[in-house]
Amino acid sequence: MFDVIVAGGGPTGLFLACELRLAGVRPLVLERRPEPDPADKAHGLAGQVVRLLDHRGLFERCGGRGAPAPAPGFFFGGLPLPLHTLGEENPMYLLPVNQRDLEQVLKERAAELGADVRRGREVLSFSQTDDRVDVVVRAPDGAETTLTARYLVGCDGARSLIRRQAGIAFPGVSDDSVVDRSALIGPSDRFRLVPGGRVVIDGLGEVPAHFHRTEKGVFTLLAHDPERPLVNTAEWEDAPAGDFPGTGAPMTLAEMEESVERVLGVRLPLAPPPEGAPTMLRRLCGRNSRLADRYRVGRVFLAGDAAHVSHGPTLNLALQDAANLAWKLAAALRGWAPEGLLDSYEAERRVSGERVLMHTQAASALLAPGADVTALRLLFAELLGSPENLHMVAALMAGADVRHDMGEERPAAPTGRFVPPIDLTTGDGHVRRLAELLRDARPLLLDLTGGDDLAATAEPWNDRVRRVTATADRAPAPAMLIRPDGYVAWAGADPDGLKAALTRWFSPA
């Protein structure tokens, strides 16, 4: 019997497997595709998920350099956000890694940790009892077998079989009026990028490279790789009903050219990427915003796109789902999960899902054509001139606006929030970043008090919680209890408060 069967071996399933292995759990990942999906999909991660990857030592493996730094700017609804003006209050981090490369990094990491990942295995059905889940699986040769685990997690995408068979509703809204087209193209002398995030296009002049809105639609040009820029259009038109995420005749480069011409009003000949480079031609007819009404039925859980879809940063959301769920499953499997711990997964992550769907729909509405939308954009741009409003929008997009209930009536400032970055001098005299102490995904008591009171309080939990003493020039609290998913479960210096938090999250000693 396996500890956990993970249905779906995309980024969410692989990251969940990594987190489970770090927690000492034996997961089995079952992926229907015999090989990784070569399609070019998401092109970056944004918000506190970037720091979560840094906690696991994956930031640099995904192309980052050194430690994550706040982004100087970003966009909301195509409106520029001058995040550099927020200074140290800037919550937005960016990591320009495409989904294909991220999946490769996670695949390699899962193998290093000894996760059992089996490709070409299609989950057909499952049934569960009070103490197990039986999963029927079809192998590449067509043979069907039944595998058993203590828990099953559906990371099998927007059309999730696990969600449907669990009887979990997937309510939401669909907007069939929007058609999004994307293509990776080759370099061209008809356009050139200039400083300030802008592009000069022959016959049109200089326009924003990101989110250039016209009354015909939206045009964007992303050039993380100058040899194969990504061009995207969004048009509000009659789309084929029921196409999710888009079917029908294959997308062509000529179709992309025609769409660009309709949006910009000028013809922009497009060439394919250089030979041997990844290609992508994608048409998405309609936009869906959906959120599972439950994330759990008995021993079956949902994570990633199986739980939520939107025209937005769902991969950011998905990886944080995995981090939240993994340590809680491990606690249940190892016998020290307090009552209600597994239920807290849905309670915490569904709130984040609601926030992402809300801001994604709002941002999409700000890009739609029409004089009324243009007026709304002018008003919204004025509101973003306030540092308070700018920070609110940035925190919303970063996922930093969510504060989990940690059971205290008057929690200290960092309690319930994702732990801030801190530079520490540990007891051995080494200067280290806090992220370096979180590589093993264990609960951590960071003690900056210099005394022994907290050590005596935490001693009965030493088998579950690691304690590190250190000093710091700047810290939000004298001590912090940090959960494996990066959230602060308690902060302060009161031993009684620490004992209550240890009991709440890691069971009585």
UniProtKB/TrEMBL annotation:
Name this protein carries in UniProt: 2-polyprenyl-6-methoxyphenol hydroxylase
Needed cofactors: FAD
Matches recorded under Gene3D superfamilies: 3.30.70.2450, 3.40.30.120, FAD/NAD(P)-binding domain (3.50.50.60)
Domain (FAD-binding): residue spans on this chain: 2-358
Cited Pfam families: FAD_binding_3, Rng_hyd_C
Phylogenetic placement of the source organism: Bacteria, Bacillati, Actinomycetota, Actinomycetes, Streptosporangiales
UniProt KW keywords: FAD, Flavoprotein
Alphabetical list of PANTHER family matching this protein: BINDING MONOOXYGENASE, PUTATIVE (JCVI)-RELATED (PTHR43004:SF19), TRK SYSTEM POTASSIUM UPTAKE PROTEIN (PTHR43004)
Native organism: Nonomuraea pusilla
Domain of life the protein comes from: Bacteria
InterPro entries, sorted: FAD-bd, FAD/NAD-bd_sf, RIFMO-like
GO molecular function, one term: oxidoreductase activity, acting on paired donors, with incorporation or reduction of molecular oxygen, NAD(P)H as one donor, and incorporation of one atom of oxygen
Transmembrane regions: none
